[in-house]
Task: inverse folding
């Protein structure tokens, strides 16, 4: 009986520590997004390209195969929330 109580207490403590760490990370992320001066762009490529490819080739590839969208703060926070739920 004492063993079961100890295991449950340890699991609860671990869950609380995880929640605190997650909240701290979300706070830091929210501060970064809220106070950032630059746009955050997400690019989905239909075909991958090596990061070692020459810069001109990467730029051409981006225009040919990339679909970008500027992420709004709301979109970023909603995405982070959705990821947290899974």
Result:
């Amino acid at each position: 009986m004492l063993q079961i109580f100890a295991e449950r207490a340890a699991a609860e403590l671990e869950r609380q520590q995880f929640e605190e760490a997650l909240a701290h990370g979300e706070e830091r992320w929210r501060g970064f997004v809220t106070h950032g001066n630059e746009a955050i762009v997400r690019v989905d490529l239909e075909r991958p390209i090596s990061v070692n490819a020459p810069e001109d080739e990467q730029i051409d590839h981006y225009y040919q195969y990339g679909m970008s969208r500027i992420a709004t703060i709301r979109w970023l926070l909603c995405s982070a929330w959705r990821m947290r739920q899974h």
Remarks:
- DSSP finds three helices and two strands in the chain.
- Residues 1-37 form one domain.
- The CA atoms of residues 78 and 84 lie 10 Å apart.
- The chain has two domains: 1-37, 39-86.
